[in-house]
Write a structure and sequence with these properties.
Layout (H helix, E strand, L loop, with lengths): L1 H17 L10 H17 L13
Helix pairs in contact: 1-2
Keywords: Membrane, Transmembrane, Transmembrane helix
Length: 58
């Protein structure tokens, strides 16, 4: 799920950069891209995957 959100943020960053849309200081294409990279790093680290490492029950 985090990877999908990251892909959407990368697409928005591309649109902001390609269309040269004037935005405020918070939503620049670089900031949106960095948020996407942070979400992608969390996805690769396994955060939000839904799998929990639990011991075996006998």
């Amino acid at each position: 799920m985090l990877a999908i959100i990251a892909a959407v943020l990368f697409f928005f960053a591309f649109l902001i950069n390609a269309a040269e849309i004037a935005t405020n200081d918070v939503f620049t294409s670089m900031n949106v891209m960095l948020i996407g990279l942070a979400l992608l790093a969390l996805h690769v680290a396994g955060v939000g995957s839904g799998w929990a490492a639990r011991g075996r029950r006998r």
